[in-house]
Amino acid sequence: MLPDDDCGSCFNYETKSTVNKFDAKEVMDPATLAWHRPQSATSRVEEELIQKSTRAATQATDPLEKLRLLCLSRGATGIMVLARFFRRLDDDGSNRLNKEEFINGLKETGLEMTVEEYEELFHKLDTDNSGSISLDEFITQLRPPMSESRRAIVERAFNKLDKTGDGVLSVNDIRGVYSMEAHPRYMSGEETADVVMTRFLANFEPDGDRDGTVTLEEFMNYYSGISVSIDNDCYFDLMMRQCYKL
Q: From 4, 123, 155, 220, which residue has the greatest number of CB atoms within 10 Å?
C-alpha cells in the first residue's frame, strides 16, 4: 500500500486512544498498534494476506508450503512468531532440532497439520539424514521467497533507518527519519514522539517478545509476509520507495 497522505511517514491512523504519557506496557498493547503500522501493512492488505493464505492452505499438498501458508494465515508476522518460538526451544544454542523437538514444537503452535505431514516435513528438511535439522535452514525455507530486487530494497530501507549502523533499529535510529508533524496523536498532544516511534517499531516484532528493537531478520521477515500479497515487483518497489522515501 502507498501512503494515503503526504505526511512523510508510513503510519496507518485507524483507531482512537486516551494515552497521554509514555508507558511501556501500554505502548505494546496490540489494540493500539494499528495506529502505528507501516502503511504497507494497513488492515486491508493484512486481511487480503490472511484470506488468501487461509484458502490456499486448504489446497496445499506440500507440507512446507502448507506450514508457510498456515503461518501467513495469522498475518504478516506469522512466520516471524514461529521462528522466535523455535529459537526459544533451542536451549543449548546448537541451532538444531531433533525430530521430537520439531514435531512437539509444531503441535504446540496449534497450526493444523497431521502427524504424517509433520513427519514428511522433518524428513524433507533433514537432508543429511542426521536425525536433526538446522533451525536457520528451516526458517530460511519457510520464509516466502522474495525476488532479489525486493530483498535489496527492503534491506536498503532498513539501512536508511539504521543510522548508527549497528544492525538494530531503535527509537534513536528512526528519530528524525519520520516526520511527526502530521501524526494526529502527536499533533493533539496525546502522545510523545517516542511513544509514536516505539509503537511503530513494535509492529515488526512478534507479540509477546517485543524488546523495542528490530533486527534486519525481523524487518525482512515482516516484509516477506507483506510481499506475498503483492504480485507486481514494480508496485512493491514503488511502495517501499514511497514509504521510506528511498
A: 220
Q: Which residue, among 77, 49, 24, has the nearest Cα to 218 in the 3D structure?
A: 77
Q: Is 177 exposed, middle or buried (0-12, 13-18, 19+ CB in 10 A)?
A: middle
For every residue of the chain, which 3-state class applies, written as one string?
A: CCCCCCCCCCEECCCCCCCCCCCHHHHCCHHHHHHHEEHHHCHHHHHHHHHHHHHHHHHCCCHHHHHHHHHHCCCCCHHHHHHHHHHHHCCCCCCEEEHHHHHHHHHHHCCCCCHHHHHHHHHHHCCCCCCEEEHHHHHHHHCCCCCHHHHHHHHHHHHHHCCCCCCEECHHHHECCECCCCCHHHHHCCCCHHHHHHHHHHCCCCCCCCCCCEEHHHHHHHHHHHHHCCCCHHHHHHHHHHHHCC
Whole-number Å distance between alpha carbons of 134 and 151: 22
Q: pLDDT digit string (tens) for 86-114?
A: 878 777 778 888 888 888 888 888 888 99
Are 218 and 202 contacting, i.e. CB atoms less than 8 angstroms apart? no
Sign (positive or negative) of CA dihedral 75, 80, 83, 87:
negative
Q: What is the pTM of this model?
A: 0.56
Specify burial of residue 73 (Cβ count, 10 A radius: 0-12, 13-18, 19+). Answer: buried
* pLDDT at res. 55: 92
